[in-house]
Amino acid sequence: MNFSELFKLSGLLARFSPDGKCLASCVQHRLVVRDVSSLQIRQIYVCLDQIQYIEWSSDSLFILCAMYKRGIVQVWSLEQPDWHCKIDEGSAGLVASCWSPDGRHILNTTEFHLRITVWSLCTKSVSYIKYPKACHQGVVFTKDGRYMAVAERRDCKDFISIFVCSNWQLLRHFDTETQDLFGIEWAPNGCVLAAWDSCLEYKLLLYSLDGRLLSSYRAYEWPLGIKSVAWSPSSQFLAIGSFDEKVRILNHVTWKKITEFEHPATISSKKTIVYKEVEKSPSIETERLSFPPTRELASSLFSTQSKYEISQVPVSLQYIKPVADRANPKVGVGMLAFSADNCFLATKNDNIPNTVWIWDIRKLKLLVVLEQLCTIQCFQWDPRQPRLALCTGNSRVYLWSPTGCMAVQVPGEGDFQIVSLSWNSSGDSMVLLSKENFCLCYLE
């Protein structure tokens, strides 16, 4: 693995272009676009205010920069640096902005979720979608870019509208059997839309493209319900992470539960491999010691190295008892992700915060547990192969694949605390983000 130098960053805003050739990053009100392979700066764009959100168009030709405080979106062209576009929502304000799948329309959600405005970069026409719901995930597109689903709230009831993205015509409009719709998500094949209620009501609904209710699922009634939802890339499985520390897997034929995965605080099965991160101080040969010490010797004296050791079962994991009388308790399965080949599912149970669980979907059993020294901040699968990268807020990046796992120290001076990471679509590099810097990691 090779690492680039550290570059300045603000707001954790660094994004690979969909074609994997460029990386856009923000420093206050400046947008810097670099070539991924050479790290040469291709363009620098100066925005009107501090950038709060960036997004590439699907063809990697345009970049959207949203300044929510000022209600402004600026769009920049990579091919024609002199061309630019400014969208001002004025007194309506702005709380969210995104590209349509064709990369030529921008959807802006106004303050108080009064409406979504669809701006066309080609014809300069404007369309409006009324009553969007203020929820976790309220606007979603099918993977092929043909349809858009919008969660709506009108007359104290939840609805879903499905639009055709080519002309923004309404295809279907139907009410949902939810108390307080929290999120919607298309299956990757675009045939089924999952909708789920807020955590106060355990209910997941599955709708067809024409608005028919295919199935509804409820695991239990009174305690806190659904916390996270993820489709498998093949659309064959839907994983539901719940506040009761379990993941339930539904199948795409009957939409019934085929299994549930528990996250106990003690791992006792001998078929599960438990990798435990341990820190070791490097041993320094006494002949090398000098006073004053050289710079590299000083840094190696005070640095600790990290590696994985295989623990003997049974293993007790670090369990944190949740505070029951607070809002959003740290309990339940809050992170879920399927590998690109559908073979593995990675999960994190929020009250065992230092641990990642990796399940074998073919055998429907727990395969590996990674126990870290610090809290898991983020994990993400390689888009090309079954390889999981994770970070824990220190200056190391951790990788797991079926062949084993490793901890890699990011070289460099200063305290580089990685709180987020993202893979390039090519799978041969990733960007590691701290609150003030980022670096690129190239994998052989």
UniProtKB/TrEMBL annotation:
Q: Which domain of life is it from?
A: Eukaryota
Could you give one GO CC term from the UniProt record?
A: MWP complex
Q: State which residue ranges cross the membrane.
A: none
Question: Which Pfam family, an example, fits this chain?
Answer: WD40
Protein name in the entry: WRP73 protein
Organism of origin: Campylorhamphus procurvoides
